[in-house]
Amino acid sequence: MIYSLLSKDSLRMLHDEIRKALDSDDESINANSEPRYGVRLDDIYKKHIASLEEQLGNQGMAYDKIVVRNENVFSVVTPFEFFQHQEIKRILDEEDKASDDSLKLHNVRGNSDWKKQADEFESYLDRLKYPYTKIQW
Questions:
Q1: Is residue 56 located within the same domain as residue 93?
Q2: Rounded to whole angstroms, what are the CA distances from 67 to 13, 23, 38, 39, 47?
Q3: Same domain, 54 and 87
Q4: How far apart are CA 28 and CA 95, in angstroms?
Q5: 86 and 71, same structural domain?
Q6: Cys-Cys link to 25, which of 35, 54, 85, 116 (CB 3.0-4.6 A)?
Q7: Residues near 109 by Cβ (< 8 Å), separated by ≥ 6?
Q8: Which tens digits make up the pLDDT trace of 89-121?
Q9: Which residues have a Cβ under 8 Å from the Cβ of 9 and sit 6 or more positions away?
Q10: DSSP 3-state helix, strand, coil percentages of the chain (rounded to 5)?
């Protein structure tokens, strides 16, 4: 998005809506439910906020800085990638226990796509600093 092309009203509206989404997420977390917008979980929001606030400053507009911290988010929210990773790990564990190759329906160890996908999930979870157990290949 080219923020310099937006009107002052548009910049203000976008900034205010992100603040509302963050407040809504915080209310959900405090109520022990999953946040609706995931502002604290998504780096895209942080980049969007930084760009918006830079342009607000360039336009000489006063604004309250939005501070996005990730603390205590994961006591309530579990990333979808964690569940996908756990499913690959579960299937791999089952196949490792199977004595007959015909019982290894997914051939997780024999297909490099599975490892590639698991590695991508692990990389994402590492960036989030989300706790999980790495798959031993």
A1: no
A2: 17, 11, 14, 11, 12
A3: no
A4: 39
A5: no
A6: 35
A7: 92, 95, 96, 137
A8: 999 999 999 988 888 888 998 889 999 999 998
A9: none
A10: 65, 0, 35
Half-sphere exposure in the Cβ direction for 39 (13 Å, CA): 20
Q: How many domains would you assign to the chain? A: 2
If asked whether residues 53 and 102 sit together in one domain, one would say no
Q: Are residues 7 and 30 in the same domain?
A: yes
- This prediction has a pTM of 0.50
Cα–Cα distance, 23 to 129 (Å, whole number): 23
Whether 96 maps to a domain, the answer reads yes
Which is nearest to 41 in space by CA: 4, 13, 78, 5? 78
Expressed as residue numbers, the domain containing 28 is 3-75
Is 15 contained in some domain? yes
Q: Which residues contact 44 (CB under 8 A, 6 or more apart)?
A: none
Under 8 Å CB-to-CB from 129, ≥6 apart: which residues?
Answer: 70
Higher-confidence residue of 108 and 76: namely 108
